[in-house]
């Protein structure tokens, strides 16, 4: 994504939040937020086009963006920043804390940050305050804790973009990322970059505009904090030790401990510089050589979690992991008919450009009332899709829907209507706090609906914002396997849902998966690489993933032909 898009979207986002806190008109707040999404998701650099061509950007917003592009802010944003202290805005980031309470806490108690709020609660300073009962205070304290935890790690979408930006900004003979990012974990504590380069690279690194703070500066390692608050470690390694350094710094620590013990048993030593017998180098330049010397298969980074991969690799029994190239289609995408920002035509064209053999459009269904969907609109879209099909003889267009799973497990439409769709994804979008029993029954009922093919973003978590719902996942997985309902691996990086540990458990019960982008804009289609990361961490092969299957096999799974 272009930097200007990202920065302008962030400024408009801040403005919409300040505007909302000030009691601004809810309709305008929504239109700002729609524009934020459209700008962030716009495929071209907005600094190089007329911003009025971005969908959802009218004249008033366009003027603000143009002023922002010129001087890094706009008049209305400056005015609101002056009126609403930054502390109040930071308070509203605490889950369950609304703007009215934030302003009251600031004005009456001088509380200007989540940390100050936690202290006030612990000290009992808010006991007996009107509107803040013991249960509310306990929730707020929990919210602050959640916020602090989420502040320490970022989701992989943020980390991957940052790592790519860092690598592109440096001159090196060889450069790559290691650590949890290379292992494709869904959250990243810090970014680890390795380089073979001249010593001057450290100075070049420290001088980059994304550096907010230099934490440690040395010849071998420099650590910085970026303006986005993420820590990046850059290590310069000898060219001849590239593989050993990659192996060491990719981790995980637990995987490395197991590998190192194997080396020790052979009377060897494994370090970030190489695999040695005394002074003699056995292997160092490539990871492949190191694993081979240890008598095992190469272990793909996403599997390096000490979850049985070492034993399997020693026996030559690692599975052939599913790869991005294996994906033949996307089965969960949106358009501007509901909450997407791109047109049907543009989304389909972008799917085709990825070389897909099939592509499903799955806009929301009527029960998500704010989307204002109707059966007429859905049928109209189906007709348009049928027309578009003529343009794409080598890509099968599937008309689907993302249904809403009601608290009792039922979905939007009766069976005869559902049968008119090629593919139905069904997801939970509300009533997240049902009891474990109710939630489990809800998912099982959705699986048992013969017209539901895929359960979308099953845990409904949003990393750093919303925890997973509580359900007896084993029971849900058994129901999914029994009914032939696929579970989604939603690749949208702030969801990453199902998470890899649950995917692995579900596979154990015989579940099949659909790796979907849940795209709401053209650039989101590229998020599939994160879903592939989750699948690889869960040891999935292409046989486990329905959207790697040839069209005929997929259609049979969907009960179509
Ligand atoms: P993160 O940053 O919390 O998301 O997770 P990682 O895995 O990136 O951890 P990090 O950044 O502390 O270290 C990167 C890798 O370097 C780690 O996965 C394994 C390796 N490493 C770091 N410290 C040690 C250590 O003390 N012993 C061993 N065996 N490996 C280490
Ligand atoms: Ca790391
Ligand atoms: Ca690190
Ligand atoms: Zn959804």
From TrEMBL:
Record keywords, A-Z: DNA damage, DNA repair, DNA replication, DNA synthesis, DNA-directed DNA polymerase, Methylation, Nucleotidyltransferase, Sodium, Transferase, Ubl conjugation
SMART domains (alphabetical): HhH1, POLIIIAc, POLXc
Gene Ontology biological-process entries: DNA repair
All copies of domain Polymerase/histidinol phosphatase N-terminal, residue ranges: 329-407
Domain DNA-directed DNA polymerase X residue range list: 3-305
Role, per record: Repair polymerase that plays a key role in base-excision repair. During this process, the damaged base is excised by specific DNA glycosylases, the DNA backbone is nicked at the abasic site by an apurinic/apyrimidic (AP) endonuclease, and POLB removes 5'-deoxyribose-phosphate from the preincised AP site acting as a 5'-deoxyribose-phosphate lyase (5'-dRP lyase); through its DNA polymerase activity, it adds one nucleotide to the 3' end of the arising single-nucleotide gap.
Protein's name according to its UniProt entry: DNA polymerase beta
Protein species of origin: Nonomuraea soli
């Amino acid at each position: 994504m272009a930097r200007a898009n990202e920065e302008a979207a962030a400024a408009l986002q801040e403005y919409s939040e300040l505007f909302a806190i000030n009691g601004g008109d809810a309709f305008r707040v929504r239109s700002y937020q729609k524009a934020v999404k459209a700008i962030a998701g716009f495929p071209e650099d907005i600094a190089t086009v007329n911003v009025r061509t971005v969908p959802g950007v009218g004249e008033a917003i366009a003027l603000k963006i143009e002023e922002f592009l010129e001087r890094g802010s706009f008049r209305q944003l400056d005015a609101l920043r002056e009126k609403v202290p930054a502390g109040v805005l930071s308070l509203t980031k605490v889950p369950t804390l609304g703007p009215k309470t934030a302003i009251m806490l600031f004005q009456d108690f001088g509380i200007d940050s989540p940390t100050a709020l936690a202290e006030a609660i612990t000290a009992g300073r808010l006991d007996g305050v009107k509107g803040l009962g013991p249960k509310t205070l306990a929730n707020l304290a929990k919210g602050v804790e959640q916020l602090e935890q989420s502040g320490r790690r970022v989701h992989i979408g943020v980390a991957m973009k940052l790592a790519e930006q860092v690598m592109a900004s440096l001159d090196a003979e060889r450069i790559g990322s290691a650590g949890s990012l290379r292992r494709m974990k869904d959250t990243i504590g810090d970014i680890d970059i390795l380089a073979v380069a001249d010593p001057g690279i450290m100075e070049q690194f420290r001088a980059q505009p994304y550096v907010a703070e230099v934490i440690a500066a040395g010849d071998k390692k420099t650590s910085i904090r970026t303006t986005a608050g993420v820590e990046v470690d850059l290590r310069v390694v000898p060219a001849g030790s590239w593989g050993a350094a990659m192996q060491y710094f990719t981790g995980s620590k637990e995987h490395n401990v197991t590998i190192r013990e194997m080396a020790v048993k052979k009377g060897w030593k494994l370090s970030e510089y190489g695999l040695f017998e005394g002074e003699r180098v056995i292997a160092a330049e490539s990871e492949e050589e190191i694993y081979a010397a240890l008598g095992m298969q190469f272990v793909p980074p996403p599997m390096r979690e000490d979850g049985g991969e070492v034993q399997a690799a020693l026996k030559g029994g690692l599975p052939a992991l599913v790869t991005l190239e294996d994906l033949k289609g996307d089965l969960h995408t949106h358009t501007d008919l509901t909450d997407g920002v791109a047109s049907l035509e543009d989304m389909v064209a972008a799917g085709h450009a990825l070389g897909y053999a099939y592509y499903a459009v799955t806009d929301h269904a009527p029960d998500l009332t704010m989307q204002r969907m109707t059966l007429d609109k859905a049928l109209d879209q189906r007709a348009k899709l049928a027309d578009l099909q003529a343009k794409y003889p080598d890509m099968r267009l599937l008309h689907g829907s993302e249904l809403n799973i009601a608290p009792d497990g039922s979905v939007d439409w009766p069976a005869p209507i559902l049968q008119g769709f090629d593919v139905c994804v069904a997801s939970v979008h509300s009533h997240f706090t049902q009891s474990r029993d109710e939630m489990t029954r809800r998912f099982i009922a959705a699986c048992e609906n013969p017209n539901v093919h895929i359960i979308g973003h099953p845990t409904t978590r949003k990393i750093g914002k919303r925890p997973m719902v509580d359900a007896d996942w084993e029971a849900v997985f058994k129901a999914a396997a029994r009914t032939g309902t696929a579970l989604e691996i939603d690749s949208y990086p702030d969801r990453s849902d199902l998470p890899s540990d649950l995917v692995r458990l579900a596979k154990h019960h015989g579940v099949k998966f659909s790796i979907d982008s849940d795209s709401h804009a053209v650039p989101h289609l590229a998020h599939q690489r994160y879903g592939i990361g989750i699948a690889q961490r869960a040891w999935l092969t292409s046989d486990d993933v329905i959207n790697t299957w040839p069209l005929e096999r997929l259609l049979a799974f969907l009960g179509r032909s």
